[in-house]
């Protein structure tokens, strides 16, 4: 960016001596001088017609400029036209460069936005999956808490100990009775 501005300044600086050279060439070369005189006379006639038209006066006979004034005026017009063309070209070039940079920047921003949107959608999908897992774990925790509460309730009421002791006594009676039956069967046989 700085190099572009330096180049613009350089071109403007070089354009001024070129325009001065155009002025001197207009005075030295016959064709160039004739072109400058013709340009200056046309500009002068147009200016006088516009001025008289604005003031509401009719345009009478317009005296032509002297050759020296015409050469100077034409050479100045050419030099100013050259400087204007250079300045306009630089402005258009800068406008084009800025538009191109903005377009590139806009494309970069669009690309980054697309990446961010895809990342957000991926994160949303992961969040949904994690939420589903969390709900499953929550249900599992609720089931385990319910079972633990039932176990604690049974053990605090003494029911589990009674049930375990009842099972042992029942198994003990059953084994004595089965051994008696086994002995009775042996006697009969």
Approximate shape: rod-shaped
Terminal residue distance: 119 Å
- Average pLDDT confidence is 81
Main sheet properties: none
SSE-based structural type: mainly alpha
Gyration radius (Cα, Å) is 54 Å
Measured by DSSP, the beta-strand proportion falls in under 5%
Tally of helical runs? 4
Please trace the helix and strand order, writing H or E for each element: HHHH
Low-pLDDT runs of 5+ residues are: none
Number of domains: 2
Give me the count of strands.
0
Q: Portion of residues in helices?
A: over 70%
Outline:
Belongs to the OPA3 family. By secondary structure, this protein is mainly alpha-helical.
Task: Throw out a few tags for this protein.
189 residues; mainly alpha
């Amino acid at each position: 960016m700085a190099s572009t501005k330096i180049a613009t300044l350089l071109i403007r600086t070089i354009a001024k001596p070129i325009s001065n050279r155009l002025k001197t060439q207009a005075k030295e070369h016959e064709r160039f001088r004739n072109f400058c005189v013709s340009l200056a006379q046309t500009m002068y006639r147009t200016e006088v017609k516009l001025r008289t038209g604005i003031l509401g006066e009719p345009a009478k006979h317009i005296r032509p400029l002297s050759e020296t004034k015409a050469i100077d005026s034409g050479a100045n017009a050419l030099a100013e036209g050259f400087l204007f063309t250079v300045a306009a070209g630089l402005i258009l070039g800068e406008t084009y460069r800025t538009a191109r940079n903005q377009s590139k920047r806009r494309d970069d921003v669009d690309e980054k936005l697309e990446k961010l949107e895809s990342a957000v959608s991926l994160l949303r999908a992961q969040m949904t999956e994690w939420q589903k897992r969390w709900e499953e774990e929550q249900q599992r925790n609720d089931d385990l808490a319910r079972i633990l509460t039932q176990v604690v309730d049974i053990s605090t009421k003494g029911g589990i100990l009674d049930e375990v002791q009842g099972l042992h006594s029942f198994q003990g009676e059953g084994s004595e009775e089965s051994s008696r039956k086994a002995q009775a069967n042996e006697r009969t046989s």
